[in-house]
Amino acid sequence: MKLQAGDQAPDFTSIDQDGNPISLSDFKGKKIVLYFYPKDNTPGCTAESCNLRDNYANLQKQGYVVLGVSGDSAKSHKKFIEKFDLPFPLIADEDKSVHEAYGTWGEKQMYGRTYMGTLRTTFVIDEKGMIEEVIAKVKTKDHTAQILK
């Protein structure tokens, strides 16, 4: 089942880059940009994360908390954050439970090969935990503009 605007955002608990528990409900009362990306340190994911980093002050001014999610380990996330000076937490979803809850783990195709992977998707969630928007066609180098439009 695909999540859509108007749906309740599924709560989850996983760990952040420091191994601390992190839940969606920790951010109740705040607007959230929850972005799912395939892998730390790959070109598209780096471009997307750095675009959010470069516009982070503007996102915060608009009241947004930014949370990134991928299947990488907390250790990988920590290195990614340090390398690119990312100012927001990254969620380690090694068991893919957060991906499953949001429908972002699925069939992908590259070079004629079909495989399972992260479907790059961003969920914009309001203060009440409702999904305001689902961005499925992410422009990695200009992602903030898609969110703030």
Which keywords apply here?
149 residues; alpha+beta; Glutaredoxin; seven-stranded mixed beta sheet; two-stranded antiparallel ribbon; 5 helices; globular
Which H/E pattern describes the elements? Answer: EEEHHEHEHEEEEH
Residue runs with pLDDT of under 50 for 5 or more positions: none
Q: What's the shape?
A: globular
Gap from first CA to last CA:
27 Å
CATH architecture: 3-Layer(aba) Sandwich
**Amount of helix:** 25-40%
> Order of strands in the sheet with the most strands?
2-1-5-4-3-8-9
CATH fold-type name: Glutaredoxin
**Tally the helices: what do you get?**
5
Query: Nearest-angstrom radius of gyration?
Result: 14 Å
Largest sheet: 7 strands, mixed
The name of the CATH superfamily reads Glutaredoxin
Can you count the beta strands?
9
Structural class: alpha+beta
Nearest-integer average pLDDT: 96
Question: In CATH, what is the class?
Answer: Alpha Beta
Catalytic activity: a hydroperoxide + [thioredoxin]-dithiol = an alcohol + [thioredoxin]-disulfide + H2O
Enzyme class: oxidoreductase
Protein name: thioredoxin-dependent peroxiredoxin
Domain Thioredoxin: 3-149
